[in-house]
Every structure is written in structure tokens, then in C-alpha cells.
Specification:
There is one protein chain. The protein is mostly helical. The protein has 11 helices and 3 strands. The longest helix is centred in the middle third of the chain and has 33 residues. About 30% of the residues are buried. The N and C termini lie far apart (about 95 Å). The protein has a 3-stranded antiparallel beta sheet, with no helix packed on it.
């Protein structure tokens, strides 16, 4: 027990000193633990939207942004995160991202309002963006060319399984612990993943450094943010065409009226509006085929003049 404590103490004091002689397979398992977690969080929140709205009083638009903030902040800085790994070392950026992801998960679980939850999910996405590129970079470094394909296959299978299992795992956690449980479960997984990564991953840094294209990253982030915001929140601000095609509730004036009497009989033209049996008659105009565009469709069945 004392030897284990001593190793843990040394690891926490200098997490970048170990991992040089560990097997690549063990390092792959350590990478997959964290990669599974960040992929799971991309879909696990989908089933929690009704509970989040009821608990925090969030609107539907705010509930949608809980997911979109994560996806957007995950996708935009991926290139920058890869460059940071090349400059400072994949292991260091990986551990920094894992630390931020675990802390952001705790903030999500304790969020008192929808706005705080959205902000914490954005931080989660940024931290996940720091983790994801380093996993592939380390796999390429650890495995020789003849074994690299199998390792990347395992890595991809883990990510796909996590995204597919997200709604199922999320439903179980919500049933047992409530919606906050889907974020609290990340904390022990993040701690275990951090210790495994610090112990098993090599402190390696690529020899070649790449230039950071900050302007390109800023412009791509701004463009993606504007696109997602317009698609999701445009309706809330009444964004749309200034004038829509007219929505006439009446049918085509050239359509002939059909007069029907209360006993079930009918006449083909409006010239004879009386039923031979003397019953009362009502006239309706048959509707033409529905146009392809929704705004051109008739909104009501019209009456004969």
C-alpha cells in the first residue's frame, strides 16, 4: 500500500515524467477512456431536454443551445488544439483538456440556470476539442505503421459506440439520478482517465512545429457561430423573407361548384340549385391539387358564392 501511495505521489508531483516505457496497448486504453467520455456527451444530453426545461424553466431554444454550444465549441477549435499539441506536446494538452472537461462537467451538474448550463457546456466543448486531436496524434506516434490501422479502428469504434449509446445511457442515468447525473458521472471517469493518461502516455513532442493561423481560426469560428445561430434562433427574432406569397383561403375561381342536398343527392353544376325532392342544398367548390410549396396551399375549404 505504501509503494502505491508513493507512486501516486510522484505521479501527481510530475505527471509528465512517466509513460516512456509503457506498452502502446495500455496507452490506447487510457486514450479510449477519455475519448469515449467526450463522444458520449455529444448525444447523452438529447434525452434530458424535457427534464432540463422543467427543472431550470428553460425555453425550447435555450434547451437546444445546451447541445449546440457543446458541438460548436468542440468543432471550431480542433485545428488550433492540434497545433497546440504539436507545440507543447500532446500529453500536456490532453491532460489540460481532461482537467477542464471534468471541471466543466461539475459546473454543468450544479448549474442553477439555463444560461449557466449553456456556458458550462461551451467550456466542455472547448476542453473536448483539446482532447480529441491528441488521441489520434499519440496513436500515430505509439503504433508502427503495420499496427496503426487496427489501433485507429479501435479508436473509431469506441467513438461510434459512445455516440450510439449516449441516449440509452442518458435515459438510464436520468431515471436513476435525474438529469444532473449525466454530468456527475463524468467526474469519476475523468479522474480515472487523468491518472491513467498521466501514468501511461509518453511525454512526447513532435520535432516540427506548425504556425498558428489565428485569423483563420477566428474567422471560421465566427462564420460557424453565425450560421448555427441563424438556423436555431432566427425564428425567435422573426428572421425570414420580408414578404411571403399570398395565402388565399379560397379555391381557384374557375373550379365549378357542386351542390349537394341534405338527402345525399347532388347536381353537377350551379345552374340547378334545387333538389328534385325539395330538400335544402349547400354548395362547395372542390379543392385543386395541393401545390408543392406549403405557403401556396389552400388554408380552408371555400364556399360557393
Amino acid at each position: 500500500m505504501s509503494r502505491t501511495r508513493l507512486k501516486l505521489h510522484r505521479l501527481l508531483r510530475n505527471p509528465f515524467s512517466s509513460g516512456s516505457s509503457t506498452s502502446p496497448q495500455a496507452a490506447l486504453y487510457a486514450l479510449c477512456v477519455s475519448f469515449f467520455m467526450i463522444c458520449l456527451d455529444a448525444t447523452v444530453v438529447n434525452v434530458a431536454v424535457p427534464d432540463i426545461r422543467a427543472s431550470l424553466g428553460a425555453s425550447l431554444n435555450e434547451a437546444v443551445w445546451v447541445n449546440s454550444a457543446y458541438a460548436l465549441c468542440y468543432a471550431v477549435p480542433l485545428i488550433l488544439a492540434g497545433r497546440l499539441g504539436d507545440r507543447y506536446g500532446p500529453k500536456r494538452i490532453f491532460l489540460a483538456g481532461l482537467t477542464g472537461f471534468t471541471a466543466a462537467s461539475l459546473a454543468c451538474a450544479l448549474a442553477p440556470s439555463a444560461s449557466v448550463l449553456i456556458a458550462a457546456r461551451a467550456v466542455q466543448g472547448l476542453a473536448a476539442a483539446l482532447i480529441a486531436p491528441q488521441t489520434m496524434s499519440l496513436i500515430v506516434h505509439l503504433f508502427p505503421a503495420e499496427r496503426r490501422g487496427r489501433a485507429l479502428g479501435v479508436w473509431g469504434a469506441v467513438g461510434g459506440a459512445a455516440m450510439a449509446a449516449g441516449p440509452v445511457i442518458g435515459g438510464l442515468l436520468i431515471t436513476w439520478t435525474g438529469w444532473r447525473g449525466i454530468f456527475l458521472v463524468n467526474i469519476p471517469v475523468g479522474i480515472v482517465g487523468w491518472i491513467a493518461a498521466a501514468r501511461l502516455l509518453p511525454d512526447w513532442r513532435p520535432a516540427k512545429e506548425h504556425r498558428l493561423d489565428l485569423w483563420g481560426i477566428a474567422l471560421s469560428g465566427l462564420g460557424l457561430t453565425a450560421l448555427v445561430f441563424g438556423v436555431q434562433s432566427g425564428e425567435a427574432y422573426d428572421w425570414g423573407p420580408s414578404s411571403a406569397p399570398s395565402r388565399s383561403p379560397r379555391s381557384s375561381p374557375s373550379a365549378p361548384c357542386v351542390w349537394r342536398c341534405s338527402c345525399g343527392g347532388s347536381t353537377a353544376t350551379p345552374a340547378s340549385r334545387s333538389c328534385p325532392c325539395g330538400c335544402s342544398t349547400t354548395g362547395t367548390s372542390p379543392q385543386p391539387p395541393l401545390p408543392a410549396e406549403p405557403w401556396e396551399r389552400p388554408w380552408a375549404v371555400s364556399s360557393c358564392p
